[in-house]
Specification:
The chain has about 170 residues and is mainly alpha-helical. It is built from five helices and no strands. It has one domain.
């Protein structure tokens, strides 16, 4: 949310979220099959690069479709204030997918003992243990809340300004 607040037109939070899901489908696959390690190829920087490329292309139309559905539900419930712009640019799709994929690998590298982010070149993970996992969780929550507050505040100001100019 902090990145979305910082660059609202150039970052797709929807593509970011879809990328997070795509990366973690690997973990779900291994958990269902009771296979360890859970974090394998798609949790490497090489795997993340492939996922980012695919989600850049697929994420743009998927984002626009999801936002169209969101707007239909908001209007149906009389919450026009919750509608969003349907447009997703290629830049926003690229940054959402790239930041989504690479931040996922970075954070998992700091947190999970089975993460080997530099495979196939190296099985080491020198990032594990660099930061206390609890501190990492708290930092993510704080940044998320701060970003959400920033984003909502900006959106409210924009919507008020549009409403004022429509009246004139």
């Amino acid at each position: 949310m902090f990145v979305k607040a910082a660059m609202p037109r150039h970052f797709s939070i929807v593509v970011f979220g879809l990328t997070q899901i795509a990366v973690d489908l690997e973990v779900l696959w291994h958990m269902v099959r009771n296979e360890y390690p859970y974090h394998t190829f798609w949790h490497t920087y090489l795997g993340a690069t492939i996922i980012a490329a695919v989600l850049t292309v697929l994420g743009k139309p998927a984002s626009q479709w999801i936002k169209t559905l969101w707007n239909r539900m908001a209007v149906k419930r009389g919450n026009v204030d919750f509608t969003v712009s349907i447009s997703t640019t290629w830049v926003a799709s690229f940054t959402g997918a790239s930041i989504g994929a690479y931040s996922h690998i970075l954070l998992d590298s700091l947190y999970h003992p089975d993460s080997e982010p530099f495979q196939p070149w190296s099985a080491s993970n020198q990032l594990r243990g660099v930061i206390n996992p609890h501190v990492l969780e708290v930092a993510c929550v704080v940044l998320g809340i701060a970003g959400l507050a920033w984003f909502i505040s900006r959106e409210r100001r924009k919507r008020k300004a549009r409403a004022s100019s429509a009246i004139v």
